[in-house]
C-alpha cells in the first residue's frame, strides 16, 4: 500500500483539534476528512525567498487545522510543489503523518524547471519533444497538453517534486483551454484518453482520485464555446470504470465576486437545469473553491452588508467565511505565501460556518425594504 490520505488518518488529524475546531470546520467527503479551508500555492515569484515563505506557510497551515494543500506543477515553475515537499518533511518530523494530509496537484500546462530558460523552445524540445513526450499537434494554445503520455510524465515529476508516493487528488488543469482550438467531440475524446490514464494511475497507487480544476469552464452559459457539462464528463468516467470511477473532484473559482457555482443553473442534468454544486452533489463529485479571496481583491473594502451578515474581525475572514459556508462547497482554497496569513486565516477553524440563513442574507439584501 502506498502512502496517501486515508479516512483513519484524516479523522485522526481532525481529532487533534477536537477542543478548538468549531462544528462544521471538518467535512467528510470521498471517505476522507477535509478542512473547510485549504492552502493554495499559485501566486508569487519563482525565487528562494518565496520558496521558504511557502514552506513556512504550509507548515503553519497544517499545524493550525488546515489539512488540504493545493498546487500545480506549473505554479512558480515547479517550485511551489517543491516548497510543499520541504514542508511535508518538516511536518513529518513534527509528528504529522502522510495519511492525515490531503495533497492535491494538477497537470496540463507546460512549465520550465525552476526558472524561465533563456530559450524556452530549445528547453521544451530537448526535455520533451526529443523524448517523444508530446508533439506539436498535441498542444493547445501553445501551452496546454493532456495526452496520456504527457500526463504520465508530469505526474511522475510532481511525485518527485512533492517527495511522496501518491497524490490524493490529481486535477487536469484548466482543460477548457483546449476548447478554444478544438471542437467539442475531439475535446471529449481527449478527456476520455486522459481519464483512462488517470484511472490506471489510481490502480498503480500513484493517485487516489482525479478531477478537473477549471477557471471559466463550469461558470459559463452552456452556449459558450468553452463551457463544460459535468454530467457529460462524469459519464465518460462512468463508461471507463463504472460506478466506482475515481473522477470525484472539481475545482472552480468561488468568491464574493464569482458566485456562479451556486447561483447559475448552467448545468443540464437528467433534463433539468442545475447549478454546478447541485449537479456535483447528484454525481457524488466534491466541489473545491479556488481564488476564495479573488486573488486578494476581496480581502478588504467589502460593503457593510457583508459584515452585517457574518460579523467576524475583518474582511479577509468574512470573504473566507462566505466561501467556506456556501452549501455544496467542501473546501475553500486560499493562497498563502505568508505564514502570518496562514495563522490569521486558520483562526476560522474555530468559527462555525455561517448558517444557511446567515448566508442567504447576502443574497436577499434589499428585498422587502
Ligand atoms: N484554475 C485553477 O486551477 C486555479 C485558479 C486559481 C486558483 N487556484 C487555486 O486556488 C488557490 C487560491 O487562489 P489564489 O491564490 O489565486 O487567490 P486567493 O486565494 O483568492 O488570494 C490569494 C492572495 O490573498 C492574500 N491573502 C491570503 N490571506 C490573506 C489575509 N488574511 N489578508 C489579506 N490578504 C490575504 C495572499 O497573500 P500572501 O500570498 O502574501 O499570503 C495572496 O496574495 C491558488 O493558490 C490555487 O491553489 C486554482
Write up this protein:
The chain is an alpha/beta fold and 369 residues long. The protein contains 13 helices and 12 strands. The chain has a single domain (7-363), classed as NADP-dependent oxidoreductase domain (TIM Barrel, Alpha-Beta Barrel). Helices cover 39% and strands 16% of the residues. The strands form 3 sheets. An 8-stranded parallel β-barrel has the order 3-4-5-6-7-8-11-12, surrounded by 6 helices. A two-stranded antiparallel ribbon has the order 1-2. A hairpin with a 2-residue loop joins strand 1 (26-29) and strand 2. The protein is globular. The termini are far apart. 48% of the residues are buried. Residues 40-43, 70, 106, 173-174, 213-215, 251, 290-296, 299, 316, 333-338, 341, 344-345 line the site of NADP nicotinamide-adenine-dinucleotide phosphate.
Features:
369 residues, alpha/beta, TIM Barrel, eight-stranded parallel β-barrel, two-stranded antiparallel sheet, 13 helices, globular, binds NADP nicotinamide-adenine-dinucleotide phosphate
SSE topology sketch:
Layout: H1 7-16, E1 26-29, E2 32-35, E3 37-40, H2 48-63, E4 68-70, H3 79-93, E5 102-107, H4 120-129, H5 148-162, E6 167-173, H6 184-203, E7 207-213, H7 230-241, E8 247-253, H8 260-263, E9 267-269, E10 272-274, H9 276-282, E11 286-290, H10 304-310, H11 315-325, E12 329-335, H12 339-346, H13 356-364
Helix pairs in contact: 2-3, 2-12, 3-5, 6-7, 10-13
The protein binds NADP nicotinamide-adenine-dinucleotide phosphate (NAP).
NADP nicotinamide-adenine-dinucleotide phosphate (NAP) binds near residues 174, 213, 290 and 294.
Amino acid at each position: 500500500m502506498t502512502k496517501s490520505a486515508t479516512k483513519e488518518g484524516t479523522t485522526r488529524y481532525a481529532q487533534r483539534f477536537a477542543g478548538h475546531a468549531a462544528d462544521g470546520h471538518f467535512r467528510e467527503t470521498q471517505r476522507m476528512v477535509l478542512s473547510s479551508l485549504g492552502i493554495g500555492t499559485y501566486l508569487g515569484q519563482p525565487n528562494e525567498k518565496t520558496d521558504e515563505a511557502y514552506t513556512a506557510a504550509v507548515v503553519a497551515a497544517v499545524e493550525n487545522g488546515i489539512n488540504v494543500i493545493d498546487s500545480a506543477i506549473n505554479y512558480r515553475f515547479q517550485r511551489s510543489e517543491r516548497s510543499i515537499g520541504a514542508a511535508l518533511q518538516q511536518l513529518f518530523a513534527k509528528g504529522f503523518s502522510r495519511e492525515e494530509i490531503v495533497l492535491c496537484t494538477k497537470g496540463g500546462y507546460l512549465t520550465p524547471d525552476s526558472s524561465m530558460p533563456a530559450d524556452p523552445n530549445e528547453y521544451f524540445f530537448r526535455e520533451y519533444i526529443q523524448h517523444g513526450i508530446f508533439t506539436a499537434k498535441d498542444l493547445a494554445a501553445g501551452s496546454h497538453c493532456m495526452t496520456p503520455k504527457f500526463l504520465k510524465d508530469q505526474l511522475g515529476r510532481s511525485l518527485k517534486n512533492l517527495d511522496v508516493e501518491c497524490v490524493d487528488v490529481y486535477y487536469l488543469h484548466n482543460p477548457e483551454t483546449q476548447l478554444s482550438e478544438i471542437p467539442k467531440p475531439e475535446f471529449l475524446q481527449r478527456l476520455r484518453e486522459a481519464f483512462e490514464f488517470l484511472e490506471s494511475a489510481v490502480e498503480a497507487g500513484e493517485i487516489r482520485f482525479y478531477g478537473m480544476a477549471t477557471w471559466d469552464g463550469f461558470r459559463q452559459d452552456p452556449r459558450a464555446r468553452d463551457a463544460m457539462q459535468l454530467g457529460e464528463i462524469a459519464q465518460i468516467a462512468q463508461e471507463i470504470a463504472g460506478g466506482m470511477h475515481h473522477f470525484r473532484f472539481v475545482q472552480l473559482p468561488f468568491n464574493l465576486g464569482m458566485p456562479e457555482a451556486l447561483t447559475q443553473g448552467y448545468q443540464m442534468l437528467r433534463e433539468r437545469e442545475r447549478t454546478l454544486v447541485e449537479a456535483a452533489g447528484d454525481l457524488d463529485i466534491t466541489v473545491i473553491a479556488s481564488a476564495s479571496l479573488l486573488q486578494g481583491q476581496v480581502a478588504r473594502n467589502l460593503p457593510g452588508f457583508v459584515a452585517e451578515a457574518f460579523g467576524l474581525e475583518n474582511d479577509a475572514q468574512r470573504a473566507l467565511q462566505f466561501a467556506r459556508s456556501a452549501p455544496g462547497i467542501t473546501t475553500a482554497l486560499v493562497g498563502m505565501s505568508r505564514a502570518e496569513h496562514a495563522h490569521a486565516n486558520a483562526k476560522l477553524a474555530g468559527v462555525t460556518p455561517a448558517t444557511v440563513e446567515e448566508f442567504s442574507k447576502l443574497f436577499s439584501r434589499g428585498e422587502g425594504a
